[in-house]
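Replying to the earlier thread about multi-chain prediction with a worked example.

Input:
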Amino acid sequence: MTLLRSLFLLVAIVFPVGAAQSAEPLPSWNDGPTKEAIKAFVQKVTDKNGADYVPPADRIAVFDNDGNLWAEKPVYFQLLFAIDRVKALAPEHPEWKNKQPFKAAIEGDMKALAASGEKGLLELITASHAGMSTEDFEAVVMKWVETAKHPRFERKYIELVYQPMLELLDYLRANGFATYIVSGGGIEFVRAWSEPIYGIPPGQVVGSSIKTEYKIVDGKPTIMRLPEVNFINDKAGKPVGINQHIGKRPIFASGNSDGDFEMLEWTTAGNDPRFGLILHHTDADREYAYDRDSHVGRLDRALDQAAQNGWVVIDMSKDWKQIFPAKDQ
Amino acid sequence: MTLLRSLFLLVAIVFPVGAAQSAEPLPSWNDGPTKEAIKAFVQKVTDKNGADYVPPADRIAVFDNDGNLWAEKPVYFQLLFAIDRVKALAPEHPEWKNKQPFKAAIEGDMKALAASGEKGLLELITASHAGMSTEDFEAVVMKWVETAKHPRFERKYIELVYQPMLELLDYLRANGFATYIVSGGGIEFVRAWSEPIYGIPPGQVVGSSIKTEYKIVDGKPTIMRLPEVNFINDKAGKPVGINQHIGKRPIFASGNSDGDFEMLEWTTAGNDPRFGLILHHTDADREYAYDRDSHVGRLDRALDQAAQNGWVVIDMSKDWKQIFPAKDQ
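Result:
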């Protein structure tokens, strides 16, 4: 763990989580109705004398990760990790050269990879994410996020987190909220770096998972990762995953795609004070612009029903002063 | 939730969790090597200048529940709950009168129930624990723990928690530990009352579970409980459950049976400071005396290997001044 801890510390220096709150919270958010709505909600549920007061133990906030806390284009970063991992493992698997989806991954042929469908992607994920201990997997992920770079921004993927969302996480925690990640991505993939990057410890990460098995390996108690899906934490799976891990219904949910619809729906149902937040990617210049027709992060039904459900929609280009943390921070 | 909250408050008054620490922690523990070993470990890992210092984020303590935080005789309390629940549901299920294991449950025939084996018990659990929303189940459990009484002690089951263990939970939390329950029992059964009784919130309860499903019921977003096993959090399942929920290896594990062996083994492997604790039931007078031959809470292999693994064994009759909280507390 020593190497990992050093990496954690390095990262923590680059992105100081929980940095001193300025007098004005959410400094990277432009003034306007979105920022005001967030602040009004927080003030309402923390006002001990108000009718909408919520005790700290019930101030649960859940955040989708891909496209919501960090970017997700051109494709989910975890898929890029899986492709890099398959390339690294390819010498041990000569049979992959002529077998899809591995051939496509090795050749970087994203069209052929997409054509392999959900089945192909799952095959790629299990082959690249299983067959090792949880500790070894964590080390592999940490090495990747510390070295791999995004093709357009030429920055590490963990530098492509959204500065305004980091501030929102800090703001909620400063007001007694517990912040959770509820991701369709792999729980152990996100956990490897969630604490230094987001200030969210592994126990507050909910995600998709493969099965694991406890066994003694070379005399050492080990949790091995198996090539079999355990749980898909997406769509109607999100409320199930939240209930399984947190055991309470959140009062604040933040997402950016139709995969977050049920999480938003479950969180905001009822009359007591609850908050739903949708990040609409509208900024092709500074980040990306996409919604209804996107193959990654498709936002259609949730956008249509946002108004009637009272969900607040972030217009990225209008509401955010800054997208990513400053390079020389 | 209003009724539940009132119940929570009532219970919280009966058992004040986190009550003011006296100058001497662990007042219900007799002086001796067991108490000294616990205190020495806590002092060691919290000493910032010591070689064995562990930062608060990694001070994870896990506790088995049945026979470890509360009693488990004559049989697991959750089984008594299941039997009471089957009796209550029997009028809607006339077919149960002549069908095992339901017939045995309705007639209170524990021998016939035991003869139905693991398969029969699972059938009883799924029939009595599923087919309703998580909220309705929580209400049913709370009503039961507030009314049902233990046959020997004639006290509510939630009054049969171990006073010395309540003090140990408080002591660890006062020293920056996060305390988790890791139970072979049902996660939602324990969660219903873990926060007021143990000071452990639902998100820090790990347990066995049945599958659940998110759906709209009568226009209301609901998580329904399905009659199908999801995960058995026992034996080698405990490290898997811990990894799934907490994502870190604990440094302190406390159990009382062979079902806790792998949790203790995984927690205490390695050379860095780690603590394994086994509760040995040796007090037939004040509670129960059992170990190797018990059908509930069998303690055999873990007892044999305690010394070589450095696990500290609590001798209930010698180490504990008091077993349960005072009646008029």
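The first strand of chain A starts at residue 60 and ends at 63.

Feel free to reuse this layout for your own posts.
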